[in-house]
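Note to self: keep these together.
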Amino acid sequence: MPGASRPHPGEFQCIISNPPYIPRGDIAGLDASVRDYEPHLALDGGEDGLDFYRSISEQWRECLVPGGRLYFEVGIGQADAVLRIMRTQGFGDIQVVKDHQDIPEWCSAHSARRSEEKKAQMVQMNMGRMAVKVLGLDKSDAIMAAVQRRCLLRP
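Structure:
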């Protein structure tokens, strides 16, 4: 993906990719109908077939809105490695979708910014509940306090 221009942070709700995922050493052994007619750029995923997963997960994560989702089609036997790549890059709520033959076909994950925001919201909700119980505030005061804290916690 060298030379690809990146959009602004938070521009996309989802990114869907079917990147090249064939390990370089496996291309020669592909069926001739694929090997001889598909552009090698569309097949060659680097030495282990995972180069584009690493690159997209690292370089495009910030282009997702909070809670945005990244979807990858994966090659046979690559789902676990792709999940690890996504987790390493800070994605959360990682899922694998299998095809009709029960083979992992897609991996998806929420941007980490969603996970961090959700944690902050949970803390705020718990703080609001404590304020209602401990301070005897009515619900509207507690809600206003939580909203004010949320505004202050936003990056």
